[in-house]
Amino acid sequence: MGAATKTVTLDGQFRMHRGGELESPTLAYETWGALNARRSNAILIFSGLSPSAHASSSKADPSPGWWEEMIGSGLPLDTDRFFIICVNSLGSCFGSTGPASVDPATGECYRLDFPVLTLEDVAEAANGVVRHLGIERLHAVVGCSMGGMSGLAYCVRHPDEVRAFVSISSAARAEPFSIAVRSLQREMIRSDPKWNSGNYDRDDGPIVGQRLARKLGMITYRSAEEWRGRFGRERSTDGLGSGQFKIEFAVESYLENVAQKFTGGFDPNCYLYLSHASDLFDLAEYGGSLASGFKRTKLEQVLVIGVRTDLLFPVHQQQELADGFKAVCKDTTFVRLDCVRGHDSFLVDMDAFRPVLCEFFDSCGCD
Amino acid sequence: MGAATKTVTLDGQFRMHRGGELESPTLAYETWGALNARRSNAILIFSGLSPSAHASSSKADPSPGWWEEMIGSGLPLDTDRFFIICVNSLGSCFGSTGPASVDPATGECYRLDFPVLTLEDVAEAANGVVRHLGIERLHAVVGCSMGGMSGLAYCVRHPDEVRAFVSISSAARAEPFSIAVRSLQREMIRSDPKWNSGNYDRDDGPIVGQRLARKLGMITYRSAEEWRGRFGRERSTDGLGSGQFKIEFAVESYLENVAQKFTGGFDPNCYLYLSHASDLFDLAEYGGSLASGFKRTKLEQVLVIGVRTDLLFPVHQQQELADGFKAVCKDTTFVRLDCVRGHDSFLVDMDAFRPVLCEFFDSCGCD
User: Fold this and answer.
1) pTM here?
2) Contact assessment for residue B54 and residue B5, using Cβ atoms and an 8 Å cutoff
């Protein structure tokens, strides 16, 4: 946890959506900007699977956050106007309670004794933080990737507590292609003998499986079109590997470097739980159809953004979200961006995303 | 090897394209139909990475082949008119010499001492079989997937020995997305401790890594669109797995069943060599550009077939092949099929492929 990260403990039994409970879980969060007197200018951000609550730098923690170019004075999530909150997802490992945390009942880490995690639990835990901050109604919920589904769960379950919703490269539920990819990533980690049925040594964990999972992640987070232009058949110059299987192409070096950076930073069991939660979410569970799910929201304004080259949350799923919201909220905007960097575009193609979010938050005013 | 499989030994030193040599390699092949008196009706088939030479059944071996519905009396590759040859690729493990074969110099299996394999070597070895059969010029070369690139190598290196070429779901060279996928599949196998730097026990090999690689294969051989219609969010009913990570969705069961069927059947080192060979091939190595490569062919007739939903050999690569051939061969046809089953369509969507190949071979007559 960074220096700007605060924590709150949700006292008592936290009942999990699919059964089981947590005893007084802790949630880590950061905030930027100031809450106004009417407590009406708060925006809650739900992150994708792997980020912490550190979405942006601040005086207390000047290190760049995962959405640094989106949050700040004069930026789309304008800290001069809004009070921005980002919560580390329940089940994650950056200060919030998850499988890597100590179970107060046993004094040992939960590991696989952690109950099944759903995005409903992620949403409810974040709602606990929002209430702790004394906020009754959010100006907006903004969710990226998995966080878009967590945000959707929030809007459906707390319809009177959200004014507007921004869904970025997300979906109303996972499709079989995405489920297959994530299921295989989890199997890669579980197949590493060092995973040891979840009881790995923290200093000697399933790094090999995590590296493989991360590489498959990158293959689905980016796009063939980007890599065609960026790497083509360029050869690698960094001499990684040896013999018959030395790294030969620049795209292989790129994946190797990305994988080496990532592993070690994220607890493997937490990854498994959050990845599984992404498969489980389905808006249609609210009333039996997607339409009935959308009907339970009471939003005044919705923005759905998607990217043409996204493999994991493809653009037709963005269209599905936009159509669903349009049926229940007149002020729904759908923006299909022509970025080439696939699912990751919202993290790396800020010049495309910033104007869209700027316009949205400019237009909605701040009461 | 099946009962219909024949073998030929290419006497002497077989010099490999990237260096090294093989001492008198063996090639396994099957044939269907009869060679005519002028020896002018032979069609050579290059398979994808994993099939054997058993492309179709015959009296000697009635078990169904991997392209059963394409080869036979009255079928597109019509055994009443043509003499069909399918060679098990050099480097494979179904009768042809490969990393799993015994090196005559040592009496031990080659394993990683096998020289770097290229699709040029696959093409040259097949050319040895064709010459052994006394055929000076092929009526046609037909190549599917990796085999399309092997076939391209054949046409470029033996321009006077091929009349027509059919490229099915293939490419002039691999793109970085496909390289990334195959590189990761190889890493999955090499990361399995049982791979043991290639020195695995044949009865206790890297099955876990092979299973993972096969699942990633299926994710790229099919399409999100097919799975959306076929599986949606249907739940699994077969109760595979247990606990937190039991199989939950039908698409996961499907992948599990496919992986269980495949593993054990293919030698892991052979897989690594053939997969790597697919990354290496580049038509532009013939003269410095794709255009110069195409110019070296002397084909009278070309057919390029591709599928809209192919992730691994995407349709723009089919267009690239077709455009390249059109510049040097007037009688070039490009057919873009609207199949939903992705790269695998040529193996499973025969109703779409058969008419296209029928028309091509009907039109070309048989001299």
Assistant:
1) 0.96
2) yes
